[in-house]
Amino acid sequence: MDRVNVAALIVAAGRGTRADSGSPVPKQYRELGGRPVLAQVVMAFAAHQRFSAIQVVIHPEDRARYDECCAGLPAPLRPPVHGGAKRQDSVRAGLHALASASPELVLIHDAARALIGREVISRVLAALGTHDGAIAALPVVDTLKRSAADGTVEGTVARDSLWRAQTPQGFRFARILAAHHAALAAGRDDFTDDAGIAEWAGLRVALVDGSERNLKLTDQEDFALAERLIKAPPEACEARTGSGFDVHRFREGDHVWLCGVRIDHDRGLEGHSDADVGLHALTDAILGAIADGDIGQHFPPTDARWAGASSHVFLRDAGRRVGERGGRIVNVDVTVLCEAPRISPHRDAMRRAVADILQIGIDRVSVKATTTERLGFTGRREGIAAMASATVLLPACNRGD
Ligand code: MG
Q: Staple partner for 281: which of 81, 244, 355, 391, CB 3.0–4.6 Å?
């Protein structure tokens, strides 16, 4: 599943007249949060990094708009193809265009769902490991009424097992292409989504959790809601906090490394690496926040590769592990415990070093120091201790993908 060839097919060939509020621009080219809707969607799939091809299907009259909207967007975006009269025709055209890329899986997505997130894409992809197809969907929570001709209620429809289908809808590429061909041959052109064609062709299609955020932009009210959602943090994020602690003993020497900064001192610190006790505590704090072991597990002191290593390597690796999970570091806080050297003259250089290694803003990095009133091993100047905490935002549904 991990290394199979996956394509994204983005359907942007509609005219979007319902969203028309006097604007001559089709909704997929309208701006949302400072970027055209279609550009947002392409970026969401490109950022996921599991796609080896991204194919957009456009209306023939929109070529100039497409070029303006998508100029400069990264590979694997392919040149657009023209859609047909109906959505089904447009998807078929896109599938034909993708055939040369030989994808094993394809995720088909409506360009009007501009706020598609990484987690929903990942869930659809994961379900394709065990099914011919998988679609993002939400259970119906409102009570459903059937109306009579006179506008009164005729009855209540049981909502158990009813779902609202969203996109992306993912399939084994060869199977959905064959289903589209079969539908064409059978004269069926009335399917409103690809899962409908898949069901008709007898494929087993899984339902995975979609997201309320993944709304379809239809009218002006939807655009206003989407603008608000873009400014709000994603619903599916949760904060994680980790802590770390480390000690290194003094030895002969003329400098110490603390929080990524070399400081002249009348002693050095003993350790397998550069013995940067601050970066070690911080690395453990970040690993703790994502529940991914500790520094000794990832960089065993018995491994000759890390002899004399700069502790930048350890911290950068912890930051990379956060990024791999689709997360980001909110803030970090390090406290150094020692009588000497004095930390305050170096505090801002330390904050800058940590911010650079983790590639976060310096306002997210705190470095503090304290003595222990000459008590204990730090008070007796036998060594330096450091403690740290880190807060990380992770997608709430993260399953390590
Ligand atoms: Mg250490």
A: 244
CA of 331 to the centre of ligand 1 (A): 21
pLDDT value at residue 15: 78
The values of phi and psi at residue 61, to 5°, are -80, -5
Query: Can you give the pTM of this predicted structure?
Result: 0.61
Query: Ligand 1 mean position to 295 CA, how many Å?
Result: 8
- Residue 386 alpha carbon to ligand 1 centre in Å: 9
Under the banding of pLDDT at 50, 70 and 90, the label for residue 18 is: low
**Which of the following CATH numbers is that of domain 6-231: 2.10.260.10, 3.30.360.10, 3.40.720.10, 3.90.550.10?**
3.90.550.10
Q: For residue 23, what are its two tokens?
A: 């604007």
Fold of 237-398: 60s Ribosomal Protein L30; Chain: A; (3.30.1330)
Q: 248 C-alpha to center of ligand 1: Å? A: 6
